[in-house]
Amino acid sequence: MKIALCVKQVPDTSDIKWTENNTLQREGVESILNPYDVYAAETALRLKKTYGGEITVFTMGPSQASNMLRDILALGVDNGVLITDKKFAGADTYATGKTISAAIKKVMPDFDIILCGQFAIDGDTAQTGPCIASLLNIPQVTYVKTIDEIKGNIINVTKQLDDGVEIIKVHTPALFCILKSEFEPSRALINGIIKAQNIQIKTVTLEDLGLSTDEVGIKGSPTYVSKAFRPEFKHLKEKHNCVETGTGAEIILNKIKEIGVYK
Question: Residues of the chain whose pLDDT is less than 70?
């Protein structure tokens, strides 16, 4: 079984900077592995442990993202691919999906499973994974809670719904977007860290993918950010001394009525 693991390096939310095009500045900014991708990686490792196979992790970003790839390789992932080119900068979810899907077809055309995190905390659009699946013309399942069983080319998964769960059977190849789970993700051991330093990370550029400059980055992005700002948080509060008067419940009820929750 061959697993393509797609991860993203996201800016630390306490240190967000913007470019003149209202896109997130990634060069020189402290970054972390997207939290949802941690669980996608753990899912890949558990599938490999149970069913065997090979995991290749893909990420699109600047050269500094190679450090994040080595952290994932140290967990037991087999190969790393860094999709990097200055012409990829400023890509929206569609251009990103096109670039990553082209890289997967180039490096790992015989994949069985693609795993992504359900969301990326820097955009929270949940669009890149489905975009990759659409461009590769394969089935997809989003909001995956667990991958339960694999029999041949059939995968049973549990999908989280607002009011319960749904059990789905999917033919491979297929893409799955993984939610956060209750289990504790793996931690790298010293042997894994040493091994990861000796693994050669494959670099893929625009020239390798056979795409034009008009298909990637800002030029290939049909959407753009018109305005970027930090929200202002205003904490409004009132203080009432209700111990002696016993009017606390009445005051709360009136406030609920004011905001239209209760009539």
Answer: 12-29, 123, 227-236, 260-263
User: Which stretch of DSSP H or E encloses residue 165?
Assistant: strand 164-171
**Cβ neighbourhood burial of 105 (10 Å; 0-12, 13-18, 19+):** middle
Domains and CATH numbers, the chain: 2-215 (3.40.50.620)
Q: Which residues, 6+ apart, have CB-to-CB distance to 49 below 8 Å?
A: none
Name the nearest CA neighbour of 16 among 93, 88, 123. 123
The residue whose two tokens read 């069913």 is 51
User: Which residue, chain included where needed, has tokens 């049909």?
Assistant: 222
Backbone angles phi, psi at 120, to 5 degrees: -115, 130
- The pLDDT, as a whole number, for residue 109 is 95
Tell me if 200 sits within 8 A of 82, measured CB to CB: no
pLDDT in tens, 189-211: 899 999 999 999 999 999 999 89
In the block, residue with structure tokens 């009820």:
253
